[in-house]
User: What shape does this take?
Amino acid sequence: ILNVEQSPQSLHVQEGDSTNFTCSFPSSNFYALHWYRWETAKSPEALFVMTLNGDEKKKGRISATLNTKEGYSYLYIKGSQPEDSATYLCASHIYGQNFVFGPGTRLSVLP
Amino acid sequence: EAQVTQNPRYLITVTGKKLTVTCSQNMNHEYMSWYRQDPGLGLRQIYYSMNVEVTDKGDVPEGYKVSRKEKRNFPLILESPSPNQTSLYFCASSLAPRDTFHYNEQFFGPGTRLTVL
Assistant: This one.
């Protein structure tokens, strides 16, 4: 089973700070990298699906980059707000295997 | 409203008593999947289905069964639940035309919290 890792495990930032976290995945036979946002007591919701090396996607204050050659993706949040508090999950799909989710990064934004 | 529904949302049961968790989607999605979430671990895939009558094992299939007789439904069956199956379960679905499910975002149900005593 391939390993998808995320760091840090948890993060506390002040409102207005910008932050970023990392998803690492095996780079061989790569198909796609998914980012999901999971608020407490809700279901995970998709943020981005990324497939191409060098891809950069943006949704409001959140953006993500992808490096398939070295096997990592960064998620950036600009000007964090309390409503950004959630666990951010990445999932990788490798040819011949299933979706594998990382353990998540739990973000807390303090007002 | 486009959605994935799961029932029940909460269930406490005893070891060995067969149970079924239902999952239904109204988006005409080909791909459906079951995950379990345990503290400190990511979502782990139990089973998935690419289309009607097509199911495959995920990473943690032991102790579970699924069926896909209709496109919209994908029930998860625990024939003889054990305490190590206490977990939070999510069903998800996505479009998968010509097996492109990995390129499409997954839509998750609300989750089922199962406790096996």
Observations:
- Chain A touches chain B at residues 1, 4, 31-32, 34, 36, 42-46, 49, 51, 89, 91, 93, 98-104 (CB under 8 Å).
- The mean pLDDT of chain A is 92.
- The CA atoms of residues 28 and 94 of chain A lie 8 Å apart.
- Chain A is about 0% helix and 55% strand.
